[in-house]
Amino acid sequence: MVLLLQSPLSLSPPSTQSLLLLQSPTTTRFHHSVFPIRRRLGRRRRRRRRKPISLSLENNVRKEQVVVVGAGIAGLATALSLHRLGVRSLVLEQSESLRVGGTSLTLFKNGWRVLDAMGVGDLLRTQFLEIQGLVIKSQDGRVLRSFMFKDESDGQEVRAVERRILLETLANQLPADAISFSSRLATITRTETGETLLQLDDGTRLLAKIVIGCDGVRSPVAKWMGFSNPRYVGHCAFRGLALYPNGQPLEPKVSYMYGRGLRAGYVPISPTKVYWFICFNSPSPGPKMSDPSALKMKAQELVQSWASDLLDVMENTPDDTIIKTPLGDRWLWPVVRPSVSAGGVVLAGDAWHPMTPNLGQGACCALEDAVVLSRKLAGALKGGGENVEEAFKAYGRERWARIFPLTIRANLVGSLLQWENPAGCAIRNNIVIPYLVKLGPLLEHTNYECGLLN
Ligand SMILES: Cc1cc2nc3c(=O)[nH]c(=O)nc-3n(C[C@H](O)[C@H](O)[C@H](O)COP(=O)(O)OP(=O)(O)OC[C@H]3O[C@@H](n4cnc5c(N)ncnc54)[C@H](O)[C@@H]3O)c2cc1C
Q: Which of 327, 341, 344 is nearest to 369 (CA)?
């Protein structure tokens, strides 16, 4: 269900003049055009500050043409695409450094095309193994089916990349002052002139012509634009990164194992690292678990009687690489969905279209968004900036047709793979997978061409 909250378009904003004159952000009285974002700074772990910059203020408000909120995959890819097209942007990131958690992401050929368009594909290829195929097994390790990617899908390229290295690679291509860390967006306000006033947790205020919300699955910018929270889909994931300092022993293939209401998989990502995951059914997301050894124990308990290859990979995993994530998505139904943009504010990545990871397409689509959005925005800015809103609408139309069906397909695939019914699972493992499944059509969506950045 899409819950329509206040539409920023229907608000009667305060004048820019009055906003510019506000002296103390703490005594500012905001009305319904502003949403409060909970302060969580105190609860966040202290991390190494990377490339800190301080925002210089003029009359208490810094002016920016383009502000990107969030230095995740969508935010950095968008800033880099804009940079390649000659458009400067400032990226605001709430953390003190690039987010290092999140283990690894599998990128398919559509993702690699985007990375090539941004000029970073080869920087990453040299660090991560090309995965040749896919082996599907039952929980006891019996092989049900295997595929070679290139036989099933022309020109397919599959590699799992470490999220940390992907983020650093994108960030390193940006100008030194492009990212402002420890800059958590607290409130957002539309001004009469159509600009957007962003207030950060530390009281800093920025007046931006264009704001690109890349602030992830719980996006405050999306909330301000009327989007509902993502819907929990009934299963959670454990992920981890196994380390083999003397070299990992696996073939360059993804292994999936399907049980009842429980599935797992692992894939070598480099000569010394192997990524693994477990998806398990749970009526609710459950309490947040932060003790790394408890996370590992819980993950191991789930699959304790499963095949030894999976258990070995998990055993080789340092506790502090393990994370648990409840999975959710948001279906952008036609007509009732809020628009991807409101004036000069637009969304990209999970902030707009959170999807379940069952097709391995969330990050790939965030990368695609970045290129399509940047091309349209840069074109509009070069034309004098009159048509920015039109450019955002065109981006929304083009990308919606791509991501709406993918979000639904990913959800349905997840439901099928999380079946608990014994008869259903027996049919899936003994008939559907060995004899009926065709991988090619399941990878059709990876043929998407994002085009070049020019
Ligand atoms: C279990 C799992 C497995 C997955 N596997 C794959 C896969 O194999 N392949 C794939 O393509 N995708 C995969 N995904 C999806 C992928 O992780 C996401 O689609 C991707 O990370 C989205 O990137 P993003 O930049 O939109 O959001 P994020 O990566 O969440 O980045 C958002 C950024 O915004 C910042 N932020 C948030 N709020 C504020 C604020 N108020 N002020 C300032 N900054 C803020 C955050 O700190 C963060 O840095 C997987 C997801 C999960 C859960």
A: 341
Q: What is the average per-residue pLDDT within 13-20?
A: 32
Mutate to test the pocket of ligand 1, among 40, 67, 94 (most ligand atoms within 8 A of CB): 94
Report the C-alpha gap between 213 and 350 in whole angstroms: 10
Burial of 1 (0-12, 13-18, 19+ CB in 10 A): exposed
- The distance of Cα 422 from the centroid of its chain, to the nearest Å, equals 34
Cβ neighbours of 193 (radius 10 Å): 13
The rounded Å distance from CA 72 to ligand 1 centre is: 6
How far is ligand 1, taken at its centre, from the CA of residue 98, in Å?
A: 12
The set of protein residues with a Cβ atom below 6 angstroms from ligand 1 is 37, 69-75, 92-95, 99, 105-107, 184-185, 214-217, 220, 237, 239, 325, 327, 349-351, 357, 360-364, 366
Reported confidence tier of residue 398, pLDDT bands at 50, 70, 90: very high
Distances (CA, A) of 118 to 94, 115, 214, 291, 360: 25, 5, 18, 38, 20
36 vs 61, residue with greater confidence: 61
Structural domains in the chain, CATH included, are 8-22+44-100+167-229+331-409 (3.50.50.60), 104-165+231-329+423-447 (3.30.9.30)
Ligand 1 mean position, distance from CA 216 (Å): 5
pTM, whole model, 2 decimals?
0.89
